[in-house]
Amino acid sequence: MQRVVEARSQGSSVVVLLTSEDSTKKVLTSLGKFLEASSVESGDVVLVGLGEWGEKLDIFRGLEREALGSIVFKQETGEVSEFSAHFQRLLPGSNPRNPWFDELWLQEEADAQMDNKNRTSNEPMVSYKSHQSTTNTIQAIVAVAAGIASLRNDLCQFDQGLCPTMAQHQKLQHLLSEHIASSLSPRLDHPGQSFQFKENGVGDTTIEVYNYRKVNGKNVNYLKVGSYAGQYNRLADMVTYSPTGEIPIEHVSSVCIKDCYKCQYTSTNHFTIPSSQGLYIAVALGIHEPTSNPLTCGALRPNWGFQNFESLLWAVDTINSDPAILPGVDLGLIVFDTCNSKEKAAMDVSNFLTGTFSDKDNLPSPENVAGFLVDGTKDIIQPVVDLTMPLGMTTVASSVMAPEFGDTKKYSHLLRMNMPSDVIIASFVNVLRYFHWKYVSVVYTEGSESTLLGSQGFEELKRQIDLHGIEIAVDEKVGNEENIAATMDIIVHRLKIKQNAGARAVILLLPPHYINHLLSAVKRLQHLGRSRVGDFVWLAYDTLEPFQMFPDQSYSALVLRSQAGEIPAFKDYFTRLDIKSNRRNPWFREYWEHVFDCRGSSCLNSQHQNLQQVGFIQDRSVPNTVNGLFTLALGLDTLQKQFCGEGRGLCQAAKNKLMIREKLLEPSKKNRFTGLGGTPIMFGDQNYVSGTLDLYHFREVGDVRAFVTVGLIDESHGLSINSSLTRGFDDQGKLVSLADVFSVCNDSETCLKKAEAASLSLPFMKIPANQEFVIGVMMPVHQPGDNFFTCSRVVEESSFQNLLALSYALEKINGNDTVLPQIKLGELNRI
C-alpha cells in the first residue's frame, strides 16, 4: 500500500485489484491505516474490483469507509436453488462414489473443534456457500449435454441411445465441439432463459457493473450502474467520494504527471573490520530475509542471522585480544549479507573474488583473503564453494548438513562444523533398532531447504530403514499450506489409524513450528476422545520447545540433539550492547527497533535501555559460527608459528597471502581444540566435526513432565541408552519402560495392503457411463502442494462444492430421458 500511495503522488488514482477475498481485505485494511494517518484522503484512490469480488459482494463488510466509491464488475448469475438444497442434505457416507466428502467433513469438524464453535443439531457441518463458479460448473455440464443431444439427434435421428453412426464417426470429437459451441441449453439459475456460447467461445452472460456508494444520501450499498453485453448499457452515474462529498467518476484523473522512475533504496550489503597487516577472513552470512527479488534484502533475521553476525564481531575481538593466537596480528573480516538468497550470495562473492564488486574501492583486495566462512543451507553454500574450491581457498561451512559435500575430491578445501544429515538419520535408525520398532510412521516437510527435514532426508531415511527390515506404515509430507491446522488434523487422523495397526513410533522430520501444529492437532483429537496420552512415541531432532509446550501430547518423546553448548561470554557481551555505544554494527539499530518495537528517537528513551530486560536466548547456531572462525584463526596461527617462529606479526615469509591461503587447509583441519561452547572440535576423514548426539526423553520428573538425558550416540562408540530411565504406555495403557512398548504391525490385513496409503488420497473420481460416453473434468479439489505435481491434504471448499455441483448436473441430465434417451453420461474427474 505504501507503493500505491507513492504512485498516487505521481498521478495514479485508479487501482485495479485482481485479488482474492483475503487479499482484498488486507489491502482495504492497509488503506484504512493510511487514511487514519492522513497519508491519503477519501477519493484519492479509486478501487476497481475483479477476480473474486464478482462472487462475493459482501467483501466490504466492516470496511465500508475504505471501500466507498469502489467499482465492481460481476458476471450475472443466479442460484440453482435445487442444488443448494441437495448439497445441504448430504451426510458422511451418503455419497460413496465421492472419495473426498468424508475428508471435507472431518476437516470441518476439526476446525469447529479448534475454534470452539457450537453447532446446533440441525446445522450442517459442511455448509453451502453461494459461488458463481458453482453455477458455472452446472451450466457447463448442461451445455455439454445439450451439444451431445444436438449431435445425437442429427446423426441418429429416430434411433435410441448411441447409434453406430455416431459412435463410429471419424470426426466425432470435432463435430461434438461444434455442436456444444452452437447449441442452446437451459439456464437452471434462471428458468425460462437459455445459454449459448459466443463465437469467441465465451458464454453469452451479461457483465454487471456496480458502484459501492451511498444510497439515499446515507446508507452504503451496491448500486447497479450499468451492464455489458456486447456494448455498455449505462443505468446510473458512477461516483467516488472526497472529504467534501460526491465526485463524478468522470472527474477522476489517473495519468502520469511526473517522471515515474524511482530510485530504490539499497541497504548495506557488506561490512569490514580492517586488518593493519592485510590478513582477512571473508564471510557470507544471511543477516536478512530474502524477498521476491533475489538480489534485494527483506526483514532482519534477529536470531540466526543477526546473532551470528554479532557473534563474529565478538569472536574476532576475542581472537585479536588473545596474545596466544596470531600474536601481533589483527585479523580482519569482510562480511557479505547474502540475505539468504543463493543468487545474491553467488553475485556478491563472485564479484568480490573477481575484483568487479561495485564497491570494490571500499573493500580489501581479494588476494588478502586467506579463508572463507559461509553460513546457510545447501542452496546458499553451493554457489560459494563453487567459487572458492577452484581457488584452493579453505572454506568453513558452519551449518550445512547436505551429505553430498562429503565428496572430499570435489570439495577438497571444505570443512563442515555440522554432522551431515545421513549420519543423523542413521542415528534415528539405531534408536528404532535398539527398541525393536519395525513398523513406524514418518511426517516430513515437502520442499524444505534442509536436507534432514525435507524430501531428501525422507528418501535417505527410507533407504536406511529398508536395509534393516523396518516398514513405514504411512509417510505424510507437509507443505506451505494456508490452512496448516486442517492439514495437521488430517495427518494426525491418519497417524491414529496406523497407530491402531501397531505403528506407535512416529519420526518427525519437521521444524519446530510444524511440530507445534502437529501436537496441537493431537490435542484436539484427545479432546474428542479419539486418542489418549502416550498413543504416539515421537522421534525428532534438535528441538525440545514444542514438546514442552504440549506435555500431554508429548509423553515418551525422544529427541536427538547435538551437543552445542551456550557461550556464556558471548551472552554477557551481547546483552550489554546498546544503541548508543554499538556504532560499528550497521544493522544494530534495525535489530534494536525490532526488539523494542520503536522507531527513531523513541528508541533512545529510558524504556529501551538494554537487552538484559528482554530475556535473551542464544541461538543454537552461534557456537558453530564462532568455532568456525576460530578454526581458521587457529590454522593461521599454526602457519604464523611455522613460518615466523615465536615472533610477533607477519614475518616476510608469511606476507605472501596467496601462499598462506594454499597452505591453510591442513593446519585448520588438524587442529583440535575445545570449542567456546565447551564441545570438542575435531575434524574426521570426511572433513566434518565428529560429534556426539544426546538422546533426550520426555517423561515425569517429580511433579512435572520434562526432558531427561537417557543416552547418547557417538560416531566412534555407537548408541548407548539407559532404557530403565524411559517411560511409555503399553497397549493396555500401563506405564512401562520404552523397551516394553512395541511398534510392530499387529493387523495382518492392514500390513498386507501395500497400496493402502495411495488409496487415502485418490487422484480421481469416476462416475461410470452406460455406454462409455464420459466427460473429462480437471478441477482443484485440494489446495496446492509445494510443487507442480503434488496436492496438499486440505480440501478446497469452494472447488469441492463445484465437484458436487458437477455430479448433481449429471444426475439431472441422466434422469431426464428426453435429453439423451438410453444414454447415461459418465465423468472422470482428475484433481
Characterize this entry briefly.
The chain is built from 24 helices and 35 strands.
How would you describe the overall organization of this protein?
The chain is of the alpha/beta class and 831 residues long. Helix content is 33%, strand content 20%. The strands form 10 sheets. An 8-stranded mixed β-sheet has the order 20-19-21-22-23-26-27-28, sandwiched between helices. A 6-stranded mixed β-sheet has the order 1-2-3-6-7-8, with no helix packed on it. Strand 4 and strand 5 (194-195) form a beta hairpin. Helix 6 (132-156) crosses helix 8 (172-182), helix 9 (304-321) packs parallel to helix 19 and helix 12 (421-434) packs across helix 13. It is globular and about 105 Å long.
What key phrases describe this protein's structure?
6-stranded mixed beta sheet; about 850 residues; 8-stranded mixed beta sheet; about 20% strand; single chain; 35 strands; alpha/beta
The stretches of 5 or more residues where confidence is low (pLDDT under 50) are 259-267, 754-762
- Give the beta-strand count: 35
Query: What Rg, in angstroms, do the CA atoms define?
Result: 33 Å
In order across it, which strands form the biggest sheet?
Answer: 20-19-21-22-23-26-27-28
The coarse silhouette is: globular
Strand content: 15-25%
The whole-number mean of residue pLDDT values reads 86
Give the number of helices.
24
Structural class: alpha/beta
Largest sheet: 8 strands, mixed
Indicate the percent of residues in helices: 25-40%
Tell me the distance between the termini: 36 Å
